[in-house]
Amino acid sequence: MLREVRKLIPLPILLAAISAIACILIIECVGGMERAILALIILTLLFISAIYSSSIPFVDVFSLEKQVSKKRQRVFKVLVGTDGSELAKKAVEYAAGLAMQNKGEVLLLHVIGVEPKIPPSIWTTSEVERRDREYLEKLRVAGESLLEEESNRIALTGVKVSTRIEFGDPAEKILEVAERENVDMIVLGVRGASKWKRLLLGSVSEKVIENARVPVLIVR
Fold it and tell me: Would you place residue 129 in the very low, low, confident or very high pLDDT band (cuts 50, 70, 90)?
């Protein structure tokens, strides 16, 4: 806190304030109350002048404590992509550990690597559409089951956890959710498993590393 105040209050302003107090005390002792009031008015004007001539608004000094307090209240949030593989589970454990150390929370993300809407074509029939919907629903249900299992495992550690399911390109969705949820870190397993369609491939990790605005931890 003291360092921040030093940055916001220039040295001339501090000296002016200290000089004003010193002058008032001296004049009060040797010259009477009227001179003390006059000196106070003059030094107050000088003090205000010094504030307005400063490149940093004086109001920042008063809002500093509020800003610092708000910053401290922000919860450390870790996003972890999971597909049910062993490496993904390991990534979840790392994410939970990081959240626990920083008194934060975990956001579990499962990306289904297909588009939720199949573009219409002359070959699309009602039977094909029905089959596609059933397939997407099965993937969604499987994803929800996976997230529930992983979130229950994290909850046992006492760490707060939330879950998301997204459809589309895994890397793009990871980056999109990280940005939208304002996370502090992304944790990924380097490869996925065939059971969950290998949604988190090495190329996905590379794309996330190249484009993420926050640190990315890759678990091998």
Answer: confident
Cα separation, 177 vs 21, whole angstroms: 55
Distances (CA, A) of 60 to 2, 7, 12: 14, 10, 16
pTM, rounded to two decimals: 0.61
Q: Where are the domains of the chain?
A: 2-72, 75-219
CB atoms within 10 A of CB 9: 18
Contact 204, 170 (CB under 8 A): yes
pLDDT tens column, 56-103: 444 444 454 555 455 556 799 999 999 988 899 999 999 999 999 999
Distance CA 4, CA 45 (A): 26
Count of H-run helices and E-run strands, the chain = 8, 5
According to DSSP, residue 118 is labeled P
pLDDT of res. 192? 44
30-64: per-residue pLDDT in tens? 556 666 676 677 767 666 665 555 544 444 444 54
Sequence-ordered list of residues with C-beta below 8 angstroms from that of 190, at least 6 positions apart, any chain: 87, 200, 202, 205, 218, 219, 220
Q: CA–CA separation, 40 vs 129, rounded Å?
A: 83
Topology (CATH level 3) of domain 75-219:
Rossmann fold (3.40.50)
For residues 143 and 17, give the distance between their C-alpha atoms in angstroms, rounded to a whole number: 64
**Residue found under tokens 């870190």:** 185
